[in-house]
Amino acid sequence: MLKKRTRQPIRLDFWFWVRAAVVLVMLLFLIYPFFTLITRSFFSPDAEGFTLANYIRFFTKKYYYSTLGHSLFVSIAATVSTLLIGVPMAYLMTRYNIFGKKYIHILIIMCLMSPPFIGAYSWILLFGRAGLVTKMFAAIGLTTPTIYGKLGIILVFTFKLFPYVYLYTSGAMGSIDSSLEEAAENLGSSKLRRLFTVTLPVILPSIAAGAIMVFMTSLADFGTPMLIGEGYTVLPVLVYNEYMSEIGGNANLASALSVIVVACSMLVLLVQNRLVARKNYVMTAMRPPKEEQLHGAARFLASLPVWLVTFIGFLPQIVVVVSSFVKCDFTGFKNEFSIESYTTIARRLSTNIRNTFVFSSVAIVLIVLLGLLISYIIVRKRGVSGQLMDMLIMFPYVIPGAVLGISLIVAFNKPPLILTGTAFIMIIAFVVRKLPYTVRSGSAFLRQMDPSVEEASINLGVSPMKTFFTVTSRLMAPGILSGAILSWITCINELSSSVMLYGGKTSTISVAIYTEVVRNSYGTAAALATILTVSTVVSLLIFLRVSKGKVSVV
Amino acid sequence: MSHTVTIQDAIKRYGDFQALNGVNLTIRPGEFFTLLGPSGCGKTTLLRMIAGFNTVDGGEIRFDDKAINNLPAHKRDIGMVFQNYAIFPHLTVEENVAYGLKAKKVPKDEIKRRVKEALELVQIENLATRKPNELSGGQQQRVALARAFVIEPALLLMDEPLSNLDAKLRVQMRTIIKKLQRRLGITTIYVTHDQEEALAISDRIAVMQSGNIMQVGTPEQIYKKPENPFVAGFIGVSNFIDCQVSEKGVQLAPEYTIQPPLRRAYTGKALLSARPEQLFFGEKEGLAGEITLSVFLGDFVECEIKLHSGQTIQLNEYTKDVNEVRPDGQQVRVCLDPAKISLYEPDTGEVLSC
């Protein structure tokens, strides 16, 4: 028997057109490029028509398939090491009166939001072949272990990404009800036993969520392994190399590699959904756990590891800023203060600086507008288009920047729409990749807002469209603004898609840092990186002000 | 100026679930009309259909003679007070109240005058420049009220406006609302699940259950003459007693039969309902039982009585009518006033008593 379904007639109102427009934009700049990429991966210049040649080549040649192993190895190693650092950090920070707790928390967030490749770059400045520490040890006849290769990658990932684990875990530890632990204690459990049998299992889903973020980010990262990996090639770097070596020809193999990267991250996400999402112990802490007051030596001992980790995590940013004011030539840094690096970039690379801020500004305007509309549709309109957007908007999380770059190139390097080499395609990449931050924060904000406020406005005679712009968006502003600052920070620091998409006139600061490092021009790279670091820190401080702790950076 | 609101065969579906099963109501101009029922009965659904926030899936809603099924919500000229007040948090009290007038492009000085009057009517003129987060719940409620009626709508809707207030404030506010409505004469539809509130505030009440209207009437009619067992049980407290109707009358127990007037000839099983205050103690006649618990409540004594049939009923005895509280364990006889009880056909719920 057929079920009777009442179909609502489609109303051609304001929101219908908005939904149609947003879906169209997504189709054009997200779905279409990605499907072009998949299609391309099944063609090859060496074969007629549809072929699996690219995939066969990948899985039979050691040069190729070893990169998959490398990628998985560094990602898993980084995940384990961030867990070993992040979870104890979170425990110490939530349960004890660590010295300078508030500032340490902010510093840890800054480690995470710092320009992604600055870590690798700073470690090279310290421990690289011509590094400060290496030279110091060499002077007294000691050799330091090499920073290049897989150990370097893992080291950089660990200190850059442990904040993910820390933030997720401390968030969960702060919301666990203290009665739960008291019950365990009351039943005769020792403190340590309680930690392993009650506290950690209860917050396991949050720890896992943090670990997944670490894994996905390290799997997708391009800048760090490119700078510090040297012979140790990971997948995103291979994608870049293959594409660059094939430039002018076609990008079929690079496309196939991209598909493999995306498949890996999707798989991880699926496993996470299966294993973790179902076991979510939602809690409302009636009484959040109390902070234990330590005194004297005990307090110092508890604070010491926290400071140490934070210091190491924050060290790259200090190194970059300091070295930017040191005189430098192609042989390395001299022992002399100088602002020469800055005068050089002002003369030679002012276009890059302008590009970074102009592109990011334009992208942010688009992100705010789209973010407002999409958050509203996801939360309030639901329906098919809402679900579709909810899904699509998280898609860029799974797609590494290099892959997005390639997919935009293969989609828009031929008529009818040729965009490669333009500022427009750079901005598109920014918008697609950074929009999720704003949508996530905006929709979370809107979810807590009662729809009756909007209804009250409509009911008083103001049309739905006008209500959206005068009431709803005004009330969503704090959420959207916080998200937009995160989008902004990640835009100015974006490297992996930009390095694929830039042309002679559209290069950005991040791209310049990369190319300067490659040509051993460390002084200018440090000055450029300082500009990014300072912009990031300032933006982040504004974010913390605006969001008042209500919007998480992760 | 005020509308007659006609609801004809109104149907609302959510997927396969039918929330309203063809509701018919006529609300007269200037009337204070309440939709009363337990949660999930469809009262708020119906109110939101009238407001234009829910679509009408069948039937028709008319303001006077004009069908408004497809009229967008912002063109309906309705004032609405929401359960959580829905005050615009970014606007001051004045700006909140002026919001609807601005939308209607009322001249500036007139807006000023009307806002002032409205705030005076709800007695918060001293709070005009405050922001909503500086107001108490009761004050926010007054702002919501002023904002809704200041536009002089042809219809005022209120969705459980008092449910977030504490008990004392609730009683105070409902008096204010009732007086205000009388004074302005705006047709008002009010939704609540609180029967006492409904009785206190309404000109007429529609009692709803599972998407159906169970009874429409004045508070007195609904309380005194419930037309089905649901209404009898939902409004106030009722004792339900199974009984047998024959030519001799209504037999409640082998020892007790009464002769209430009936609407039509009927014999067979029936369900009798009586309010605790309609029961009284008899000397020789009545249902035999034993007092299991007497509770002294000031103006009356609430007696729980276990009948010989095994059923427990409640009887209220006014303090002014008696000299002493009856002790627990006392053997008593309980009588009913045949003119005041309600009698129902047990399967259909049809009312048999006059």
Walkthrough of the structure:
The complex is a heterodimer of chains A (554) and B (354). Chain A has 23 helices and 4 strands. By secondary structure, chain A is mainly α. In chain A, the strands form 2 sheets. A two-stranded antiparallel sheet of chain A has the order 1-2. A two-stranded antiparallel ribbon of chain A has the order 3-4. In chain A, helix 14 crosses helix 23, helix 15 packs antiparallel against helix 16 and helix 20 runs antiparallel to helix 23 (522-547). Chain B is an alpha+beta fold and 354 residues long. Chain B is elongated and about 75 Å long. The mean pLDDT of chain B is 90. The interface between A and B is medium-sized, with 20 and 31 residues.
Keywords:
A: 554 residues; mainly alpha; 23 helices; disordered N terminus; B: 354 residues; alpha+beta; 5-stranded antiparallel β-sheet; 34% strand
CA-atom Rg of chain B in angstroms = 25 Å
Mean pLDDT of chain B: 90
> Helicity of chain A, in percent?
over 70%
Largest interface: A-B, 20 and 31 residues
Which geometry of chain B do the CA atoms define? elongated
Q: What is the tally of beta strands of chain A?
A: 4
- Pairing-aware structural class of the strands and helices of chain B? alpha+beta
The spatial strand order of the largest sheet of chain B comes to 6-7-8-3-9-10
Number of distinct beta strands of chain B: 20
Runs of chain A in which pLDDT lies below 50 for 5 or more consecutive residues are: 1-7
Number of helices of chain A: 23
Helix content range of chain B: 10-25%
The helix/strand order of chain B is: EEEHEEEHHHEHEHEEHHEEEEEEEEEE
**Ends apart, CA distance between termini of chain A:** 48 Å
User: Unreliable segments of chain B (pLDDT under 50, ≥5 consecutive)?
Assistant: none
Tell me the quaternary state. heterodimer
Strand content bin of chain A: under 5%
Order of strands in the sheet with most strands of chain A: 1-2
Largest sheet of chain B: 6 strands, mixed
- Summed up, the helix count of chain B is 8
